[in-house]
């Protein structure tokens, strides 16, 4: 039975999967770095208003961890956007999806917690589903500038997920969220002049999109910081892998056609989420005996 934290992560993933149309509209009126700057700053203000007087009690851990996670978060967004100038969206989706198998590896390396065997199986199914969603064109062996930038984005996303779990305990979820969003906003803003991005003309369209996605970013980051106090990075990554499934469902409701490969990918991702939750008694007993045998040999 999923925990309340896992259900909360699933809920924000559903909401996040339905934002593609809003983001696509915003990118027709605004550059990606400036949009991330405005969107994250609005999100920081929203969470700051919710936190109220709690903001007066910031400690060093929250400032340091929030800044580190925020810069990592913004880096993933900026690198992914930059990579899209050179590669197709399907290839970008495939390379970005590499964060799913990277998370358990980073969890093992940074947190010294080996994922459960069923979590590995769930990760494998979810990644296979993401490959199906990306399509065969995304699997070409060529590797250029856009591929490298997007791969770095996937690494940043995986590190962000692990860092949230690393620092989630012992901090206030609202305060650290404000710091993450504020730091991410400043970092994205600094990238605007560095990249030569042109500031957008005033438009209520991109402002409305920034407000909507800023509110959602606030909700998502608060839930992540709260839920990942108890949900492992690997399990969280499997849940987040369902984002394109929910995005595809929204597109289908809007009239998009879903090919068989997309449907198969959705089934595999959902199967991965369910598989990662399973803990068969026979497997637990087998793993227990194996652990005892290794202890005796040591």
Automatic annotation (TrEMBL):
The chain crosses the membrane at residues 7-27, 33-51, 63-80, 92-111, 118-142, 148-167, 174-192, 204-224. InterPro entries: Diverse_Substrate_Transporter, EamA_dom, EmrE-like. It comes from the Bacteria. It is a multi-pass membrane protein. Residues 7-133, 145-274 form the EamA domain. Keywords: Cell membrane, Membrane, Transmembrane, Transmembrane helix. The keyword Transmembrane applies. It holds the Pfam family EamA. It is found in: Cell membrane. The keyword Transmembrane applies. This is DMT family transporter. The lineage of its organism: Bacteria, Pseudomonadati, Pseudomonadota, Alphaproteobacteria, Acetobacterales.
């Amino acid at each position: 039975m999923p925990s309340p934290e896992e259900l909360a992560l699933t809920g924000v993933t559903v909401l996040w999967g339905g934002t593609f149309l809003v983001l696509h509209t915003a990118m027709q009126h605004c550059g990606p770095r400036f949009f991330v700057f405005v969107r994250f700053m609005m999100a920081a203000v929203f969470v700051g208003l919710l936190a109220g007087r709690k903001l007066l009690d910031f400690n060093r851990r929250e400032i340091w961890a929030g800044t580190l996670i925020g810069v990592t978060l913004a880096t993933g967004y900026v690198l992914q956007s930059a990579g899209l100038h050179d590669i197709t969206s399907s290839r970008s989706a495939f390379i970005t999806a590499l964060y799913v198998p990277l998370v358990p590896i980073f969890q093992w390396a940074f947190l010294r917690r080996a994922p459960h065997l069923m979590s590995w199986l769930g990760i494998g199914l979810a990644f296979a589903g993401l490959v199906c969603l990306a399509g065969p064109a995304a699997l070409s062996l060529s590797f250029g500038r856009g591929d490298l930038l997007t791969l770095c984005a996937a690494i940043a996303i995986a590190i962000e997920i692990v860092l949230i779990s690393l620092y989630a305990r012992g901090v206030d979820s609202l305060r650290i969220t404000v710091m993450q969003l504020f730091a991410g906003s400043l970092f994205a803003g600094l990238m605007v002049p560095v990249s030569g991005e042109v500031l957008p003309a005033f438009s209520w369209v991109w402002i409305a999109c920034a407000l909507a996605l800023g509110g959602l970013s606030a909700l998502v980051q608060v839930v992540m910081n709260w839920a990942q106090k108890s949900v492992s990075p690997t399990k969280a990554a499997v849940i987040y892998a369902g984002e394109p499934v929910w995005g595809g469902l929204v597109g289908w409701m809007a009239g998009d056609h879903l090919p068989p490969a997309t449907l198969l990918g959705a089934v595999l991702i959902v199967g991965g989420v369910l598989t990662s939750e399973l803990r068969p008694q026979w497997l637990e007993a087998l793993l227990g005996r194996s652990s005892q045998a290794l202890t005796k040999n040591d």
